[in-house]
Request: fold
Amino acid sequence: MTQVSRRIFLGSALGGMALASCPALALGRRPRAALAATPLAENLLLITGAGANVLAARGPGGALWVDGGLEAHSAELERFAHKELGTRRVTTLFNTHWHPEQVGSNLRLGKRGATIVAHENTRLWLGRKINVSWREGGFEPLPDKALPTQTFFYGKERLQHGDELIEYGYMRQAHTDGDIYVHFRRANVIAAGGVVTSEGWPFIDWETGGWIGGMIAGIDRLLEAADEHTRIVPAQGRLLTVEELKAQRAMYMTIYERLVKALTSGLSPAEALAQEPARGLNEHWGDPNPFLENAFKSLWGHYAPDA
Reply:
């Protein structure tokens, strides 16, 4: 029988996210809502309000989390998750990529012996000073106890967590160059990290290896792993269906083709945006230009290595 507490807040479960360090998350987002939990399956919760979507799964030895929210909310998140799930400790924490909304619980849980699983590129980023244009001063390296302790490179891996078989795999250079998905096979739920979004135009962190072509390839990886009933959990916002994911892929492919044409015609970012490469696509997501500019710049290393 499930041990998931029924003390949940369904009215706000898929609601507000914290304003966060990633610029895409700060654009047009509502103020942070209280922590809220929604059961997705037996012993599997979606927790919102900590800065990013967090999945928490109960197992015989403790809990397994996918992403840990922002560090400012990690203590509250830990108390809330244990109370709602009926657990006492976190044994395993996945980082879907290096951004602060994903790794904010690394130090707290790492000090307590949790295994932190990530792509090797994520571990490398977290272990060094990261300078990006969207964060003044960049990001300092994480302490040793906060670094991933179990990494992989390409392909996919599996682990058993109680009755749940968990498959996780690399999505190539997509949102960053270290994005992974985590698939709860029995529950048929996939945590997709920052590669997909349901709240607005995504952020392509081209300065740490993300690019629009890789984002499309990452969606292809998700579609390969999913079936028609799979629920997709993005880093931010409500769950997505596979049909919605297919529609996003088609949209990004159209934008990709328009941007490649602009780049190979010798246009600058401003000139490319003036052509409105997102015209007629997902207008309810608001101003696409921040996304388009990053998507255009993300092509430089793949189509114009000397740019």
